[in-house]
Amino acid sequence: MEKFLIAHDICGRMRVRLPYPVSFREADAIRWVLMRTEGVDDVKIMIRTADIVVFYHGDRERVIRALEGIDLSNQALIEKAPDSGLEISARYWDKMVSAVAGRVLRWAFLPAGIRGVLALINSLPYIVKGVKALFSGKGLTVEVLDASALTAAIVTADFKTASSVSFLLKIGEILEEWTYKKSVSDLANSMALNVGKVWAVQPDGSSVETGIDEINVDDLIRVEVGSMIPLDGTVVTGEAMVNQAAMTGESVPVRKTAESTVYAGTVVEEGSLTIRVRTAMGETRYEKIIGMIEDSEKLKSEAQGRAENLADRLVPYTFAGALLTGLLTRNVTKAVSVLMVDYSCALKLSVPIAVLSGMREASSHHITVKGGKFLENIAKADTIIFDKTGTLTKATPTLKEVVVTDGRSETEMLRIAACLEEHFPHSMANAVVRGAEERGITHEEMHSKVEYIVAHGIASTIDGARVVIGSHHFVLEDEAIHVSERAQAILDSLSPYYSHLYLGINGKLTAVICIEDPLRAEVPDVVGMLKTAGVDKIVMMTGDSERTARAIAAKAGLSEYHAEVLPEDKARYVEAEKTLGRTVMMVGDGINDSPALSAADVGVAIAEGADIAREIADVTISEDDLYQLVVLKRLANRLMNRLTNNRRFIVGFNTAIIFGGVFGIFMPGLAAILHNSSTVGICLYNMTNVLKDDVA
């Protein structure tokens, strides 16, 4: 960044003065870079004064170097930086100041007659809106209430009240629109594809794993089954079934062949594709669609629907109260005071803001929730089903041993296994690839096209020989691989505490890959905490043997488990629980978990797992820590409690204002102020975190 001045630096608080005012997007870029700097706790930027305040701990020079390294002429940096909402807040602040200043100036300098005319003019848009709502078939709505109050004030020549009411309605609109848009903006910024690496196709046809930020337009990338398409592009070669739910909401996969257009954020369910990149990172259709979140039906929870129904049911009672007040008191002012109050506005606005804020808060804990209804289902969840491998066990299992059964070398067997497994995103496959790397074993692409059989294994051809690797069921039963007496003796001696991958070549068992897959240390605590949070049934489902499953379940503190299950078995179990009236949450990480994740009321994917699992799931936890599930459950529970308390407060407070108007305690202007202030106040409150400081 160009020359800047450090105005002062005291106790971890540095004020930096820029040589010129920056734009909102430039400010976002500065904040983004600084917040990614080690030791920086917070950054505040004053656009108008061109000041930056950096709160930090530790190395002061590191902060200065970060400031010096910011290049605001780099357009890519500007585009990449997430929108902090500075521009939204500034725009609505200007609207607020303009509205308040205009009212002050009118009352200070304009004669009463002109102020009356202006009151009539300012009231007309709200009256017209109310008339349209009345004749649109919507019935008695909040717009009709506002129009009735303004009309009554104007008819009685109470232009002061009409002016106050229209002004307060305008202020309420500004604040309500700001709170909603700010919540949506915060949520949108929490969403990202989180793809760091891609397989770049080289001129000789080979694939090399490359950082996504190194990929340019017209480069070729390869995407295999189970992986997310990271960038928009056009298919060059290959054929695949692509899940486009992230784009269209349609879960049925779409066939993609040469010349087909594919979009970032979609997932290859079957097949593989070579794609010519059409848009660089930050320019994809998926990232643009994030801005349409506010139109998504997924944001609507049942709680929101109940609030909206309650609000609509209460509007006629407000009208009845105003009419009754007018008849009994013969006082139009008191009747108008009642009309100034409605339940609809606060009920309808506070719930979506609370839900959006809950989703944003979840994202601050590295949890992505794709819709408000899922938070409500999490709060109601009384059954949680866990996959074992990569979920209850560590996300990074390790290769412990290669047991050869037919006299071949361990090195050769591991080379073949790693060559096949590197194409597929699963924790067991990753363990094989890492194990080969740690042993210095390189493996060129020596096989033909690989075939992935979900929940079973991989098959391919090497030097004309059929090679299979996978589970006991797949290799020894489905593929009918021959096991010699010597090999059987070796199998019988294998440790039951390891997970096993079986490698067969040309119909013979050649090796067993032993992988250590220990239980996560936090699992027993997490199980106990989830039970305390309201989950009374926690189940483990795994493809492992009965013996292994029983041992893991005992360590985890689980009384119920199911061994040697297939993907369809998990999905059937989920459906069976739902038919019993239970709310089911499924937690998994692999392609084999996808059917159950889709079937559950809430599917939760571990971020280190397969792309398709994250795509299908309703929630993704990005931390390698199952305590995040406890955070998620507590957050959802408290959010639902907040919504219940909101509803009680709104109904109680506004009812009190109505009675105050009936008995002449509140004049129309004051009633409007109290009503609108309470609406804005509860919306602002709903933008705060529900977990506060009790969760790290």
Number of strands: 24
Strand content: 15-25%
Over the alpha carbons, how many angstroms does the gyration radius reach?
31 Å
Integer average pLDDT: 80
Shape: elongated
Number of helices: 25
Q: Gap between N and C termini, in Å?
A: 34 Å
| Major sheet summary line | 7 strands, antiparallel
* Class from helix and strand fractions: alpha+beta
Describe this entry's structure for a reader.
The protein is built from 25 helices and 24 strands. The chain has 696 residues and is of the alpha+beta class. It folds into five domains: 5-81, Alpha-Beta Plaits; 90-188 and 299-354 and 637-686; 197-283, Calcium-transporting ATPase, cytoplasmic transduction domain A; 369-393 and 520-622, Rossmann fold (3-Layer(aba) Sandwich); 398-516, Calcium-transporting ATPase, cytoplasmic domain N (3-Layer(aba) Sandwich). Strands 5, 6, 7, 8, 9, 10 and 11 form a seven-stranded antiparallel beta sheet that branches. It has a seven-stranded mixed beta sheet with strand order 12-24-23-22-13-20-21, with helices on both faces. It has a six-stranded antiparallel beta sheet with strand order 14-19-18-17-16-15, sandwiched between helices. Strand 22, helix 22 (594-599) and strand 23 form a beta-alpha-beta unit. Helix 11 packs parallel to helix 25. The relative contact order is 0.09.
List keywords for this structure.
696 residues, alpha+beta, Alpha-Beta Plaits, seven-stranded antiparallel sheet, 24 strands, 49% helix, 19% strand
